[in-house]
Write a structure and sequence with these properties.
The chain is α/β, with parallel strands linked by helices. Among the domains are: 1-40; 50-223 and 378-396, Tubulin/FtsZ, GTPase domain (Rossmann fold, 3-Layer(aba) Sandwich). The chain is built from 15 helices and 17 strands. It has helices at 36-39, 56-70, 89-92, 114-122, 126-133, 151-163, 186-200, 216-221, 235-246, 259-269, 284-287, 290-298, 329-343, 380-390, 397-423, and strands spanning 7-8, 14-15, 50-55, 77-83, 100-102, 141-147, 172-179, 201-202, 205-206, 210-215, 223-225, 231-233, 253-255, 273-283, 312-320, 349-357, 363-371. The strands form four sheets. It has an eleven-stranded mixed sheet with strand order 5-4-3-6-7-10-14-17-15-16-13, sandwiched between helices. Strands 1-2 form a two-stranded antiparallel ribbon. Helix 13 (329-343) links the parallel strand 15 and strand 16. The longest helix has 27 residues, at 397-423. It starts with 6 loop residues before the first strand and ends in a 5-residue tail after the last helix. The structure holds guanosine-5'-triphosphate (GTP) and magnesium ion. Magnesium ion (MG) is lined by residues 56-57, 85, 109, 150.
Length: 428
């Protein structure tokens, strides 16, 4: 598409020629075609600051992968690992030991019980200090990583998130939460169901701003290679997702998605769950443009999605600096919008960031976060596990009822948003 065909909304966001509403801010587009040169955003070098917290052994393993990947370019990050059992070196791997802390003096883990995870976290006053030492009160957002099958992610994480505001930590609240694989035990799915509910709402208050769900069954089957041809699987894929989301390419960014873009509509609409789709190191000689790379990522989401009911999309794109002239932001945006309108037709809000890597290759890395889809069918395995464990559970029925009601309300809200979006009457 030529530059002259771009349509700009009142906020100056570029859109494809047929768009009537802006794909970025949703405003009605009345002004047609402005000269592209005036619209180009200067290259930004400043990155949002995050405090990354690995909770439990899975969280700390992923944190260790992220550390390996990012330590040389991590001035904007701080790292913290918290677990309820002493960890061996094969878990924390490359992480400096002073980053990792054990809570609960006599505890040896939670025994995969969310209730114990919550108790250990709530009885340990050091967590607030650890977060403050890790500058959680100074950064733009805190980003938790954990599994929801274990007791730390399902019990300690919702409690810690709920305390952030009281502890003076007021930035964005992000979480990458790993759902147990389908063939794992009902107890782990019980934890995941309870944990997810309490990540959404805790003591009747919304608790997270952005929940990225990954299903371990999907992750098991996912394999890719990075831009240097090295195979990436498992926790390294998860570290790559976080890296793509929180940092920019080493040759700067043309358009960035910042923390308020990632949290504003979610908070307003009370919708927080996302599935990641990722494609790394795709050569433009082979894939010949953005559309095929989008398809490569979209074909293997790390958590199943219903694309027809998705309402949010965030696209993070990194391309080799050498492709800068050939692939302008406006053209890439237009190609994305065409693809999105066909594949994710109900989208209400969509953001697109583009940054560059300092190399002479022809590679594209892409992370697409798809959110707000009707997700009941995709947590059914955890719901069934929850129902089976519930009958034998010693937890107070009132507490379990709140957990169920929260997820029911969340689903009702999603249904009502979808009805309105289908009729075209959702205003944001
Ligand atoms: N993606 C991923 N999942 C893991 C890994 N190790 C364990 N899991 C999953 O994590 C869940 C178990 O949670 P853990 O992280 O071991 O538990 P925890 O947070 O340490 O809490 P505890 O219950 O006290 O041990 C299960 O669903 C496992 O399949 C890992 O390295 N990567
Ligand atoms: Mg553990």
């Amino acid at each position: 598409m030529s530059n002259g065909n771009v349509k700009f909304c009142p906020e100056g966001h570029p859109n494809p020629p047929y768009a009537n509403y802006c794909g970025i801010c949703g405003k009605k587009i009345e002004v047609i075609t402005q000269p592209i040169k005036e619209q180009i955003t200067p290259i930004e070098k400043i990155e949002p600051e995050y405090c990354i917290v690995g909770l439990g052994s899975t969280g700390i393993k992923i944190l260790s992968n992220l550390w390996k990947r990012m330590k040389k370019r991590s001035e904007h990050l701080s790292f913290l690992g918290i677990d309820s059992e002493a960890l061996s070196e094969d878990v924390y791997g490359a992480l400096p030991p002073n980053i990792i802390h054990k809570i609960g003096k006599r505890s040896r883990g939670t025994g995969h019980s969310w209730k114990v995870g919550e108790r250990l976290a709530s009885e340990d006053p050091s967590i607030k200090d650890l977060l403050i030492q890790a500058k959680a009160d100074k950064v733009d957002a805190v980003f938790f990583i954990c599994s929801l099958g274990g007791g730390m992610g399902s019990g300690a994480a919702p409690y810690i998130l709920s305390m952030l505001q009281d502890w003076g930590i007021r930035g964005g609240r992000f979480i990458l939460a790993i759902m147990p694989a389908d063939n794992e035990s009902d107890q782990l799915h019980f934890n995941a169901y309870c944990g997810l509910s309490r990540l959404i709402k805790y003591k009747l208050r919304f608790n997270s701003d952005f929940i990225i769900l990954v299903n371990n069954t999907n992750l098991e089957y996912y394999k890719t290679v990075d831009r240097y041809g090295r195979e990436i699987i498992g926790n390294e894929v998860l570290a790559a997702i976080i890296d793509m989301m929180i940092s920019i390419g080493d040759a700067g960014v043309h358009k960035r998605i910042n923390v308020s873009d990632l949290t504003m509509y979610e908070r307003t609409m009370g919708v927080f769950h996302f599935s990641p789709c990722i494609a790394l190191g795709h050569s433009m000689r082979i894939y010949n443009g953005l559309t095929k790379v989008l398809e490569s990522a979209f074909a293997r989401p790390l958590m199943p999605i219903d694309p027809n009911s998705a309402i949010f999309t965030y696209l993070f794109l990194q391309i080799s600096e050498s492709l800068k002239e050939k692939m302008s932001y406006e053209e890439l945006l237009s190609e994305f919008e065409t693809w999105r309108q066909y594949n994710l037709p109900l989208t209400i809000a969509s953001y697109f960031s583009l940054s560059y890597t300092k190399d002479q290759m022809d590679k594209m890395d892409l992370l697409l976060l798809i959110g707000g889809y009707l997700f009941e069918p995709f947590i059914k395995r955890s719901y069934d596990g929850y129902q089976r464990v519930k009958s034998a559970s010693t937890q107070p029925p009132e507490e379990l009822k709140i957990i169920e009601d929260t997820l029911k309300e969340y689903t009702q809200n999603l249904n009502s948003i979808h009805q309105k979006a289908k009729k075209g009457s959702y205003q944001i």
